[in-house]
Design brief:
Helices cover about 35% and strands about 25% of the residues. With about 260 residues, the protein is an alpha+beta fold. The strands form two sheets. An eight-stranded antiparallel sheet has the order 4-9-11-10-6-7-5-8. Strands 1-3-2 form a three-stranded antiparallel sheet. Helix 1 (about 10-15) packs across helix 3 (about 50-60).
């Protein structure tokens, strides 16, 4: 065995990692020992490997996944672009959450005026987009709406978002474009059921829609009225020409069995 090899404990202190981490990184192929004693299984490292150990520690402190660290160590620094994009998306989500929290702090818990309205059945083209949790709803809704807008080549559309009342870790978001007659250039054509709905009008950014949805569901719960079907968001304003604080959306939930 070479004299300049360091036992794992000594190398761990040099590389500012734990022995457990070094063993794990060995198993993953991120940082292999320079030598493993065949009889004892002891791992030994060279001092020159400390730079790699410190680099792994640095990237982990920046929330870089181990799989991506492997790509970076293999000479692909562009692999960090996806991590950066993910962090930016998370930062944007946190800012939206903070804005909602500040609104609750300023105005109290949601108490939007809820009314009962009757809606006729609506024939619509519906597109679906998978959302990976509540934090992904905004992206999924925007993506589904964009597909409809693109298919209609910018023509005015009456759009309705459809969301499950009870959500899992992943679920389907639907956006419907109301049709008068004729075929649809995109989406599955179906009839959205009519009937009685609890409805409240939300004025403000889409990111704060959950506050108005909370008020509608609380109103239903107080009256022992089960929320049926999907929560609807009827988009009254065009976000392309309306500032976020002035966007008008009707938030609705069916009070009757859908048929």
């Amino acid at each position: 065995m070479e004299e300049d090899l360091l036992p794992i404990g000594q190398f761990a202190r040099l590389g500012r990692l734990s022995v457990k981490q070094l063993r794990h990184y060995d198993e993953l192929g991120l940082l292999r020992p320079a030598y493993v004693d065949a009889e004892t299984g002891y791992r030994y490292y060279r001092a020159s490997q400390a730079r790699t150990a410190l680099s792994i520690g640095l990237l982990r402190s920046l929330d870089v996944p181990l799989a991506v660290i492997g790509e970076v160590l293999a000479g692909s620094p562009q692999a960090l672009e996806a991590v950066r994009d993910g962090l930016e998306a998370e930062l944007a989500r946190r800012r939206r959450t903070l804005a909602s929290l500040e609104r609750v702090m300023a105005e109290g818990l949601p108490s939007a005026r809820v009314r009962v309205v009757r809606e006729p059945p609506r024939r619509a083209a519906v597109v679906r987009e998978r959302a990976d949790g509540l934090q992904d709803v905004s992206r999924a809704t925007s993506a589904a709406a964009a597909r409809l807008v693109d298919a209609w080549q910018g023509a005015p559309l009456e759009l309705i978002g459809l969301f499950p009342v009870d959500v899992d870790e992943a679920f389907e978001v639907e956006v419907a474009a109301v049709l008068e007659t004729g075929p649809a250039p995109a989406g599955q054509v179906r009839v959205l059921p009519g009937g009685a709905f609890a409805c409240a009008t939300h004025v403000g950014p889409y990111e704060q829609m959950s506050l108005t949805a909370h008020a509608v569901l609380a109103w239903c719960a107080e009256r022992r009225l089960p929320a049926r079907g999907r929560l609807r968001e009827v988009y009254v304003s065009d976000p392309a020409v309306t500032c976020p604080d002035a966007l008008v959306t009707h938030v609705m939930v069916a009070l009757e069995e859908e048929s």
